[in-house]
Structures are given as C-alpha cells and as structure tokens.
C-alpha cells in the first residue's frame, strides 16, 4: 500500500498534537495538584466531588451562623451582667430605703439614686448590638423594647425570638424577649399585688390578690377608689372601664374583681379608716420592674409625717424588694439559657469541624493528583515525544535516491 507524503505528515502532526496535549495535561496536574481537571476526565468522580463540595459549603455556612449566634449571645450576656450588677445595687438600696430613721434629706438622696438606677436600667434594657439592632425586643429588633411612662416603663417588643439555623436539624434563639427579664415578675402563681397610693390619707392596707377563678382573669390592672369611709368604686385601669360603683365597704371583707380576690383592712388609730380619695391599685403578679422602682421612688419623695405615710413607704419597700428579687431571678434564668446555648454551639462546632474534615478528605481522594504517578507519567510522555520527534526527523529525510549506493 502506498502512503502519500502529505498523509504521512498529517498523521505526524496529529500524533504530535496529541502527545503535546497529554504533556500539557500532566504539567497542569503537577502545577495544580488536581487530577480531576474537568468532568470529562471522570464523570462519576466529578459528580461525587460536586455533591461533597455543596455539602461542605452548607456545613461552612452553619459554622458562620454559629459564630454569629455566639457573638449575639455573648453580647446579650455581657449586657445582662451589667443588669445583674444594677439589680444587686438596687436591692441594697431598697434595704437602705426601708430604714425608718432616715431623715427627709436622706430619703431624697435615696430617691435620686433610685431615679438614676431606673435610667441606667432603662438604657440597659434598650441596648443595641454592633449593627444597631435592639437586643431585648424579641424578634422585632427594629423596635425600642422599653419606653418611659408615667408609671415606670412599657414593653413594646413581642414575645418571639429571632432564630438562627446552627445545624441541619437545630435552630437557636439569638435574641431575648425583654419582658422575660424586666417584666413578667412572677412573685407567686395566681398572685396579684395590692398597692396603696402614696397620696392616701389613711393607714388602711390592702392584701395581695389571689386568683379564685382563672377563667375570668385578664391580667388587667385595677384600682379601688374610696368615695367615703363606707363606699368605693372599682375601675379597670388597663381599659379605663368602670367595673362597679358605690360598693359597700367592710374592713377585711373579701373584694372580688375579674376572678381576683383581695381585701382592704382598716389601719390602727383614728387615721386607720379609708377616706374619700384614698386609692389602692391591684396589679398582676407579673409586674414590671420599672413600675416597682417608680413606686418606691415616689414614696421616698413624700414626707413620712403621718402613720399612713410610713405605711405607704413600708408597702412600697416590701413590693420593690420582692419585685427586684424576682426580676434578678429572671435575669439569672435568662443568663443560664444563654450559657446553655453557647455550650451547644461549642459542641456543634466540634462536630462541624469533624464533618468538614470528612468532606475535604473525600474531595481530596477524588480529585487530588498522585504526584509520584503524574511525574513518572510526565517523564515518560516527554521522553516518548522527544523520541518521536527524532524518528520523524530522520525518516522524513529518506527518499529512493538516498537509498542508492554511493559511487
């Protein structure tokens, strides 16, 4: 069979191009350390690398989420550490306020300290993170949690928390519901506070309220206002609605409002009987700490000239002491929850590191080059290429004339 010179050269060019491509591929593997340079090299392995890479990316994102969660929880715990210190200072201040021998000027000084404490506590309750988001407004991070009101403070957030996905099957809360710290002070189950108004003339007292019919309880606030020593009106101060009027008063007799029962009892002496204008508040046991602190501050600013004044101050001190103690317990409970969440994150980080190592090992086994094998292959390819070049150069010079004997 006769092979034309053009075909010979064309075949040679094709072979040389193939050998150069193989050498280039081997050099690329050596330089990059990757043998699976394209899906066409090994489609099955490439598919496995894609799946493992996607899983690794998701695992990495969980790690980022855990770091963000840790930052948020740590920041919240830092603020609550300040809240704890402030609560403890206020607790000591309540003890000082209960000292009946304080001079008016001393009481005024203590009242100013309470005012300062309320302001500092309000600032802590309205703390923001590094992004300017409120930390204690539940899931409404753009809403200021607490605003100052005439009776202390009002919670404006909601009862939900922002959640972060920290693992394939687990979410963790990264915000705190402010009312669980500064409000919802549960002194005792089914309990209501009875609070004499600081302006009362008489030394009459009011008991704590007890829930007798849970179906009727609305968690509203109520007031009992005396119109005479023998009659009183009841108002729902949460709605402004009048509950009843011209009720007959008997000292110590049970008074029931909205499923809550309590009683007003005459004090000792001639000023013990309620007079027109005397008022008593009945508030749910889940009190707002700002309300309790404002009550005692108001009582301290009023001179304790009469026995009624002293009774009002004693009642305010007792309520503030109970409220601060309960609120401090709330803070400690929330800090425990934050600590537990951070411990969970630490455990998940350990698992995440192990999982990521497994993914990277799988990817490496599928696509990383075997240097010894690739270098040996490259050396062989280069040797073959050079030998082919020399052989072609030698054979391409041959002709029939070159085969004739030299004379």
Annotation keywords:
single chain, 407 residues, alpha+beta, f41 fragment of flagellin, N-terminal domain, 3 domains, 9-stranded antiparallel β-sheet, two-stranded antiparallel sheet, 8 helices, 15 strands, rod-shaped
CATH level-4 homologous superfamily of the largest domain: f41 fragment of flagellin, N-terminal domain
| Overall form | rod-shaped
The stretches of 5 or more residues where confidence is low (pLDDT under 50) are: none
**Which percent range describes the beta-strand content?**
15-25%
Under CATH at level 1, the class of the largest domain stands as Mainly Alpha
- The total of helices stands at 8
**What is the CATH third-level topology name of the largest domain?**
f41 fragment of flagellin, N-terminal domain
Brief characterization of the structure:
Residues 3-139 form the Flagellin N-terminal domain. With 407 residues, the chain is of the alpha+beta class.
Descriptive notes:
The chain is of the alpha+beta class. The protein folds into 3 domains: 1-35 and 370-397; 38-185 and 289-367, f41 fragment of flagellin, N-terminal domain (Up-down Bundle); 188-284, no CATH class. It contains 8 helices and 15 strands. Strands 6, 7, 8, 9, 10, 11, 12, 13 and 14 form a 9-stranded antiparallel beta sheet that branches. A hairpin with a 2-residue loop joins strand 12 and strand 13. Helix 1 packs antiparallel against helix 7 and helix 3 runs antiparallel to helix 5 (289-301). The model has no long low-confidence stretch (mean pLDDT 83).
Ordered list of secondary-structure elements with their pairings:
Blueprint: H1 5-32, H2 43-97, H3 104-125, E1 146-149, E2 152-155, E3 163-167, E4 170-173, H4 179-182, E5 185-186, E6 191-196, E7 205-206, E8 209-211, E9 222-228, E10 231-236, E11 241-248, E12 254-257, E13 260-265, E14 279-284, E15 286-287, H5 289-301, H6 307-367, H7 371-395, H8 400-403
Antiparallel strand pairs: 1-2, 3-4, 5-15, 6-8, 6-14, 7-13, 8-13, 9-10, 9-14, 10-11, 12-13
Subcellular location: Bacterial flagellum; Secreted
GO cellular component, one term: extracellular region
Family: Belongs to the bacterial flagellin family.
């Amino acid at each position: 069979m006769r092979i034309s010179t053009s075909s010979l050269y064309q075949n040679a060019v094709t072979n040389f191009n193939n050998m150069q491509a193989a050498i280039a591929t081997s050099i690329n593997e050596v330089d990059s350390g990757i043998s699976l340079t394209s899906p066409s090299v090994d489609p099955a392995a490439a598919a496995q690398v894609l799946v493992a890479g996607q899983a690794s990316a998701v695992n990495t994102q969980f790690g980022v989420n855990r770091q963000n969660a840790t930052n948020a929880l740590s920041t919240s715990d830092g603020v609550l550490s300040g809240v704890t210190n402030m609560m403890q200072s206020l607790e000591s201040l309540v003890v000082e306020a209960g000292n009946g021998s304080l001079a008016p000027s001393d009481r005024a000084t203590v009242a100013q300290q309470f005012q300062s404490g309320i302001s500092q506590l309000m600032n802590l309750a309205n703390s923001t993170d590094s992004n300017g988001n409120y930390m204690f407004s539940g899931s409404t991070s753009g809403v200021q949690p607490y605003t100052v009101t005439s009776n202390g403070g009002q919670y404006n957030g909601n009862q939900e928390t922002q959640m972060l996905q920290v693992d394939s099957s687990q979410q963790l809360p990264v915000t705190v519901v402010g009312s669980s710290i500064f409000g919802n002070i549960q002194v005792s189950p089914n309990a209501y506070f009875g609070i004499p108004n600081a302006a009362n003339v008489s030394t009459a007292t009011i008991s704590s309220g007890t829930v007798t019919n849970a179906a009727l309880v609305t968690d509203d606030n109520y007031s009992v206002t005396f119109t005479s020593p023998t009659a009183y009106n009841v108002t729902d101060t949460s709605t402004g609605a009048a509950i009843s009027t011209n009720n007959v008063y008997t000292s110590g007799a049970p008074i029931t409002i909205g499923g809550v029962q309590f009683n007003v009892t005459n004090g000792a002496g001639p000023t013990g009987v309620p007079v027109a204008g005397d008022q008593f508040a009945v508030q749910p046991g889940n009190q707002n700490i700002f309300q309790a602190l404002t009550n005692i501050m108001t009582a301290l600013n009023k001179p304790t000239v009469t026995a009624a004044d002293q009774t009002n101050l004693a009642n305010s001190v007792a309520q503030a002491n109970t409220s601060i103690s309960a609120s401090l317990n709330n803070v400690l409970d929330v800090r425990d929850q934050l600590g537990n969440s951070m411990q969970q994150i630490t455990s998940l980080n350990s698992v995440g590191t192990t999982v990521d190592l497994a993914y990277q090992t799988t990817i490496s086994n599928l696509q990383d080059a075997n240097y010894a094998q690739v270098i040996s292959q490259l050396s062989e390819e280069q040797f073959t290429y050079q030998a082919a070049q020399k052989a072609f150069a030698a054979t391409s010079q041959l002709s029939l004339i070159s085969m004739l004997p030299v004379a």
